[in-house]
Amino acid sequence: MRNVTGVAERTAPASAIPGPGSEPASPHPVPEAGPAGRPDRAVVRDALGVGVAVGLSGFAFGVTSAGAGLSLLQTCALSLLVFTGASQFALVGALAAGGNPFTAAAGAFFLGTRNAFYGLRLSQLLALPRPVRPLAAHWVIDETAAVSLAQPDRRAARVGFTVTGLTLYVLWNLTTLLGALGAEAVGDTDAWGLDAAGPAVFLALLAPMLRTATERAVAGVAVVLGLGFLPVLPAGVPVLVAALAAPVVLWCEGRRAGRTAKGADR
Amino acid sequence: MNGPTTVWLAIGLTAAGCYLLKLLGLLVPAGALERPLVRRLSALLPVALLAALTAQQTFGAGSALVVDARGAGLAAAALALVLRAPFLVVVAAAVVVTAVVRALGG
């Protein structure tokens, strides 16, 4: 375990489970910015790239929301106050289909549960002071988590989180406004292929995470569950069922590891 | 479509709920992550959710499954990712290919 700052490592009982989870010290062996740390410029470039690309898809949201019958104020309020794209798309979709406000909000809420897990990882990685957390929380979303978690050290992660968050928040809200205003001018957004922007963003965020067979297995099972339950469960629920792919694959791996260990004993 | 009061109610509920979820993750004590299983799980959950969302937004139409121009767009995005293209190029490839396939009647 690297610890370039020389801060005394916290001691913790060694884990009984072998593998990457067995490091006895802090969950994130994240060095503070060292001389070998990633240059800020490279981090900012990554963060701006993600921020600009996703910010532009706010245009698609503005158009979709206006097309679903929400007013300009309602559309902008969603981007300002909810600020998590999948939940926003889910909400306007459900409202347009005539769903009641509680079901519609529940679907959006369930889609947002993943942000709690991003926050769980980010709080360790970024080590934010307590007073800053309620402010930073609003920016805890797919893209800021992806950029931050991809950085090699804490300083780069903080720069990545801040630049991605700020770029995205400004552009997402600006382009939401433009999209809502321009909905009539654009006409059929699907004709422009804008409905493919969302999934392409998700795919680009997912790709670097598929490092080992475990991640690929989780992704594969999640796709099968997510698509398989789409026709039978209410909007927003199938994606939650798909999240079960993570514990299921881990459980299967644990069983296999257990069998292998037993076999080796003989 | 619902009335404006209903829509505002849904917006308020969603905004409050989504914010609390984000805050929850940041405020949970650090000890919660020290257990290897929890750490492993919290690393794998985004993988599952992003994979499912990608598939659903590519092949879902309401509660039906369809294969349409978006599939071609996503294939283009995947190719761009394999070729290590920058983020913007990946998204642009998906949008442009989807639009072109649709224009060709796909």
TrEMBL record, chain A:
Keyword Acyltransferase assigned: no
| BP GO annotations | L-valine transmembrane transport
Origin organism is Streptomyces lavendofoliae
Record bears the keyword Glycoprotein: no
What UniProt keywords apply to this chain's record, in alphabetical order? Cell membrane, Membrane, Transmembrane, Transmembrane helix, Transport
The name of this protein is Branched-chain amino acid ABC transporter permease
Where does this polypeptide localize? Cell membrane
Family of the protein in this entry: Belongs to the AzlC family.
Pfam families in alphabetical order: AzlC
From TrEMBL, chain B:
- Its name, as the record gives it, is Branched-chain amino acid transporter AzlD
Q: Which UniProt keywords apply?
A: Membrane, Transmembrane, Transmembrane helix
Q: Which organism is it from?
A: Streptomyces lavendofoliae
Extract the InterPro entries matched here. Answer: Brnchd-chn_aa_trnsp_AzlD (IPR008407)
Q: Which residues cross the membrane?
A: 6-31, 43-67, 73-101
The family database entries (Pfam families) matched by this protein are listed as: AzlD
